[in-house]
Structures are given as structure tokens and as C-alpha cells.
Amino acid sequence: MTITPPAINSLTPPPTSHAQGWPGLIEAYRPYLPVTDQTPVVTLKEGNTPLIPVPTIAAEIGRQVQVFVKYDGLNPTGSFKDRGMTLAISKAKEAGAQAVICASTGNTSAAAAAYARRGGMRAFVLIPDGYVALGKLAQALLYGAEVLAIQGNFDRALEIVREMAENYPVTLVNSVNPYRLEGQKTAAFEVVDVLGDAPDWLCIPTGNAGNITAYWMGFCQYHAEERCRRLPRMMGFQAAGSAPLVTGEAVAAPETIATAIRIGNPANWQRAIAVKEASQGQFNAVTDAEILTAYRMLAAQEGIFCEPASAASVAGMLKVKDQIPTGATIVCVLTGNGLKDPDTAIQHSNNPFKAGISPNLQEVAQVMGF
Ligand code: F0G
Q1: Contact 279, 232 (CB under 8 A)
Q2: Cβ of residue 260 lying under 6 Å from some atom of ligand 1
Q3: Exposed site from 116, 247, 283, 313, fewest CB < 10 Å?
């Protein structure tokens, strides 16, 4: 039988809005965002990240449930920060800013650098010396940020940049900047747009607590517009050595392998508590060992490489799995790409690396077990 290819003009043309591809989240969600025709949109076409089913992880729960990961590590600079940064930088440019500043455990600095430079601005980033994953530092440098490594942790760096922004002509682009959260809430819109409703649970790694606040804003806004019928329980997970929202007390010397969430005094603390209460959610802590187990499972069983902090959402869901109702739909947010932190991947892979093999067929076959 011969198969006749369809004539070109018989194909359905793509909808006009997507004829040029995904337009970036400001254009995609413009009616929901604080932008006007005067706002110069600085975009790298961020957003529209996949919601991926993770059946082997769902099977760990032992009941009929659906689990998805929102893989925000596929944003242009490799983390969810791009969602907030496209808006924060566009608004800074609209206001005539020439320089922006942030404190960062790495991802914010990469995103701030990329978007600021693209928007023609200087980017100053303060990072905790020695506690930023290699990929993130590489990004900030190559994007052209002015990188200042301070001998203190993220919390101290944030205090300094807040004061800098009050006293000098630099715009603060940490998540205390309201435009950051406005941009980040679009991730909740995307989840609902794909699922047709909000999930029952939203599991999310929590550091400075900007992202959990932003997701909740997004779900509530869509709910008010009747784009979803339910609202999720917001389940925030912190690393055990940096879990102020769990213990109720700031941590002076936070520690965890998940350096992205090595934060002892979250700037959005009060908002995070409000989200927990409004959504009947919880904050729980996961150990570094639990984070690493989930990190390896995601990669080796599901083919999804996220950074350690991101795996806290899956580690946390598994930790409190007894509370999951049968039939639930759960979304775990994977905030950053695994390529950000190659050192942790290599050091904590259980997979032996077979090196020093002589270049001949027999030896290769033997090592392969044939
Ligand atoms: N996951 C990753 C990969 C992060 O980089 C961060 C925060 C979080 C989760 C936590 O999000 O702070 O909104 O609760 N990173 C910030 C930074 C602090 O500087 O890149 P949050």
C-alpha cells in the first residue's frame, strides 16, 4: 500500500498567537500581569515548561495517585527564577533603572545577570563565598554580572543588598520585589492550563519562600476567574539544616547540601505562614540523605535531572506519603536544572564510573560483562 503524504495546504495552520512559537510568559499571560503598552518586554521566551508524569515515583506511594513534576529547570537560565526576572527586569527598565542588584544562592544571580544584560543594564550580584554551585557561578560570570562573593551567608547578603537599594541607584530584584512574584505566579497558571484544574497538593522546595507565595497567588487568581474549581494544599519542604519555617525560629548558621535553599531567615516568612494557613498546607523538613535519594530516583528512574534543592519537593512528598488521599493529583515543583551542580551529581551518584580502560574491543567487552 502506498501512503500519500498530506498536501501541505491540508494541514491545519497553527494558531496565530503561536505561529512564531511560544511568546514568553509576559505575552502569554499579559491580562494577568502588571504590564502596559509602555512596558519594554525583556524576554528570553521563558515559561511553558513541561508537566511530566513520574509513574515510578507515584508507585512508591502505594495507592492510586497521579504525580507530575513541573520541570522549571527547562527555563532559559535553567531555573524558575526566569519567570520572575522577565517581569522584574522589564519593570526596572520601564522605570529607567540602569543597574540591578540581588543576593543569591546562585540561581537568582544567573537569571538577574542574563535578563539585566539583555535589557542593557548592569547586574550586581552578592553570593555567599564558597556556597554557590559551579554552573550558577559560571553563568553569572559569563552573562556579565559583577559578582561579589561575601564572607557570609545568603541572609547577610540579602540584608546588604536591601540597604544598597535604599541608598544607591540600583533596583533590588530579589523576591521582595513584587514583580518577581507576579512573574513567578504564571507557573501555577501553566499547571492549571495543562491539568484542567489545580492539583490536590502542590509540593515545593522552600528557601526564601517567594515561590510558594507566588504559586499560591497564581492559583487564587485563576480560582477567582473560575479557571480552576479547587485550590491545592501548599506543601513546602525545607532542608533539615535550614528549616526556619518548620521550627518557627530563624537559623543563624544554615547548612545543607542543597545550597540553593541554604537560607536561615526567609524574607517572605509572614507570607509563607499565610499561604500555609489559607491552603491548609504544611511545612516539613527533609534531610540531605532524603534529598539525595529523591535526586537519584528522579534521574535514574524517570530520566529527569534536577538540582538537589529541587529534589526536596519529591523527597518531602515521599516523606509524608501516608497523608496523601487515594485518587489525589500531586504536582512537585522541580525548580532548577541538574546541570547547575555537576559536583554534587558526580560525588553522590551511586553509579560506578569505569575509567582507565585500554582502548581494545576485548577489554571493553569484558568490562561490559560480555
Ligand atoms: N529551588 C531552587 C533551585 C532555588 O534556587 C531556590 C531559591 C529555591 C528552590 C527556593 O525558592 O526562595 O522562592 O523559596 N533560590 C534563591 C537564589 C534564594 O538566590 O537563587 P524560594
Answers
A1: yes
A2: yes
A3: 247
